[in-house]
Specification:
- The protein has helices at residues 2-16, 25-56, 60-65, 67-70, 83-112, 118-155, 168-185, 188-197, 203-208, 210-224, 229-258, 262-273, and strands at 76-77, 166-167.
- A two-stranded parallel ribbon has the order 1-2.
- The protein is mainly α and 274 residues long.
- Helix 5 (83-112) runs parallel beside helix 7 (168-185).
């Protein structure tokens, strides 16, 4: 029985290290160039398609971004002659990056995977699988919750003396900035899982440094959002909740790593009895 277990372990070790073949620097550079070229081609194709669709199909993306303004009948204006054209190009670029992000993650994984050990691969794959859904979830939270509340608050200062006049470029820049910011902060549980599996942090460390983390959260919210207390609070609130979720995720990841496999547990029990 022990001989069979030993043979199985040796076989698994051989399979695990089949990719651990040294490669010269030129091969790494060639592989990196291949991944970059493929990613850029995908982004360019999606960029052209999204830009043409935005120009020819009655602005579907800009109309979605303009929804909070339509509730108050606030129009968008352009202050420069070329502003609409370059706004459409920016919309196409942001859409291309957003839609191509899963492909980009896949190319990054294929490039980095041969250089990782088995433990590191197990730690990274949840990030590859969950990072995009969490990013989309953060963007949806910003679009359906934060942006309507925040924009309605600021547009509430309208009166007979002051009327809103928002340019296309500035409004799009602010909206995209907020959506990407909320998408990034929703990655916190995934990052916590990876760092825990790599042994860099644990749940006890996160609990111990909770008060310092709250300060960092509010500083980060001030950097990622416009300079106003209302929007910063809207971002800091979910961040605090995500930090508490990250503690639970780290605790579960730590337990999963510490719990021995059934075969290893049986072997340890036999050794202790003998």
């Amino acid at each position: 029985m022990r001989k069979q277990n030993t043979e199985q372990k040796e076989k698994s070790n051989k399979e695990e290290h089949t990719d651990d073949v040294p490669m010269p620097l030129t091969s790494h550079l060639g592989e990196l160039r291949k991944r970059l070229v493929r990613t850029l081609i995908v982004i360019m194709v999606v960029f052209v398609g999204a830009t043409v669709a935005e120009m020819e199909l009655n602005q579907p993306i800009l109309s979605a971004f303009r929804a909070p303004l339509d509730a108050r009948n606030v129009p968008l204006v352009f202050l420069e002659l070329t502003e609409p054209f370059f706004t459409y190009l920016r919309i196409g670029l942001y859409t291309a990056i957003f839609l191509s992000f899963p492909y980009l993650l896949g190319q990054i994984w294929l490039f980095v995977r041969p250089a990782l050990f088995s433990k590191e691969r197990k730690a990274v794959w949840p990030f590859i699988l969950l990072s995009y859904p969490l990013f989309v979830g953060g963007g949806l939270f910003g679009y359906f919750v934060v942006i309507p509340l925040g924009y309605d608050f600021f547009l509430g200062f309208e009166n007979k003396f002051t009327l809103p006049s928002l340019s296309m470029a500035s409004y799009l820049s602010l909206t995209i900035h907020l959506l990407f910011a909320f998408g990034l902060v929703f990655e916190l549980p995934t990052v916590s899982f990876i760092l825990t599996r790599l042994g860099l942090i644990n749940a006890a460390w996160l609990r111990k440094n909770r008060k310092y983390s709250l300060v960092v959260i509010f500083i980060g919210a001030a950097i990622l959002t416009p300079p106003d207390v209302f929007t910063q609070t809207l971002m800091a609130g979910p961040l605090i909740v995500l930090y508490e979720i990250s503690i639970l995720v780290s605790q579960m990841a730590g337990k999963k790593e510490k719990d021995p496999a059934p075969e290893e547990q049986k072997t340890q029990d036999k050794k202790s009895k003998s």
